[in-house]
Amino acid sequence: MAMSKKAIGGFVGLGGIVVVVLVLIILFAGAWRSTPVDHIGLHYSGGPIEGQRFQGVVDPGSGSRFLGISDTLVLLPVTQRDYTASNAEGADGGPIVAPARGGVEMEFEVAAYFTLNTGDATVRSFYERVCIKFDCTTDDGWDEMLRINFRGPIEQAIQQSIRGFTVDELYAGQASVAQGEQPDDSGDEAVAILEQVQEQIAADLKENINTVLGGDYFCGPTFNRTDPDVCPDFEFQITAAVPTSDAVRAAFAENAASLQDIITAQNRAQATVAEAEGQRESQEALNNLYSDPAYIAYLEALAMQACAANSNCTLVITDGGAGININTGSADGGTPPG
Questions:
Q1: Alpha-carbon gap, residue 198 to 189, rounded angstroms
Q2: Which segments of 93-164 does DSSP mark as H helices, in order?
Q3: Which residues belong to CATH 3.30.479.30 in the chain?
Q4: CA 138, CA 23: separation in Å to the nearest integer?
Q5: In three state form, how does the secondary structure of 284-303 look?
Q6: CA-wise closest residue to 85 among 160, 30, 156
Q7: What is the pTM assigned to this prediction?
Q8: What is the maximal distance between C-alpha atoms in the chain?
Q9: Are 85 and 91 in contact (CB under 8 A)?
Q10: 80-265 has CATH 3.30.479.30 classification
Q11: CA separation for the pair 77, 42 (Å, rounded)
């Protein structure tokens, strides 16, 4: 029996209602969001009627909550971040090349450690003024933001900090260290200079980067969200500093080997002197021992004890020229006369 147009229209209407209900359920379910412990959330409204507005900050680790249909929760990291420049796989960029005093180029492998300033007003400003431009809520966008805004200030800081030091001061001793040997005094001095450069860069890098970005958006790893007005300095490390020229590195290696040969020769000479001194002291001790009356008396007692155990023993002890004759047995080995 053919279905009437009225019945068909009823089914179509019912199907449309079902579709609408399903869409509303999906939208309603999607309006519930939570923030993981390693991210902070920025809640923006975006319904069909109202325009997009900032609604507030959602703390890290917050449970699921209803935001609103078509609302957005932007997630930004609260954990320590880093920017690395090295030859290692996975680094954010290649090593930084800068000339030391005298013009010799050196290659620096470095790492900067920092966190995002997650104070409510600051993190919102960062997202709206910087992050959206790079789409930094994605991994690729975040990396691009660091490349554009971090690489330049780090290169500038390296160049300014090392131009007062020669390649000898920055690299001395590292050739021997690379060969598994101990650095000499100049190597220790080079380490101290690199530490000085690190501290200077760490003190300036935060200000330089935030000036480029237009706000105090990044702080050191010890930043505490509960005290957002305190923005510590970055942590900065120089993990390697070597001349780019193979010839310069070879010259340092040759010099380090020559210094090691000198040290080895000096050590051998000192060992020979010590051995001779030990032999002299040993002989002197023996001479003193043989003239010690107590030691002589001890030897006499041992001799008398040994002689007493032998019936054929005759012991003669002289004392200042006078002899003492002790005969413990008869000439034929028998018992001595009573």
A1: 14
A2: 120-126, 132-134, 139-149, 151-162
A3: 80-265
A4: 28
A5: HHHHHHHCCHHHHHHHHHHH
A6: 156
A7: 0.63
A8: 159
A9: yes
A10: yes
A11: 11
Do 244 and 107 touch, CB atoms closer than 8 A? yes
DSSP three-state, residue 91:
coil
Do 206 and 101 contact (CB within 8 A), yes or no? no
Burial of 78 (0-12, 13-18, 19+ CB in 10 A): buried
| Cβ atoms 230, 122 nearer than 8 A | no
Q: Which residue has the tokens 């310069």?
A: 248
Q: Which of 289, 238, 226, 302 is nearest to 86 (CA)?
A: 238
Q: For residue 52, what are its two tokens?
A: 């997009």
* Phi, psi at 327, each rounded to 5°: -110, 115
pLDDT 10s digit of each residue in the chain, 338 long? 455 555 445 545 555 665 555 545 554 444 556 788 999 999 998 766 666 788 899 999 886 665 666 788 899 999 999 999 999 999 999 999 999 888 888 999 999 999 999 999 999 999 999 999 999 999 999 999 999 999 999 999 999 888 888 888 887 534 333 444 444 455 566 678 888 888 889 888 999 999 999 999 999 999 999 999 999 999 999 988 888 877 776 766 566 545 444 545 556 656 666 666 666 666 666 666 667 677 677 677 777 777 777 777 877 776 654 444 555 454 454 444 44
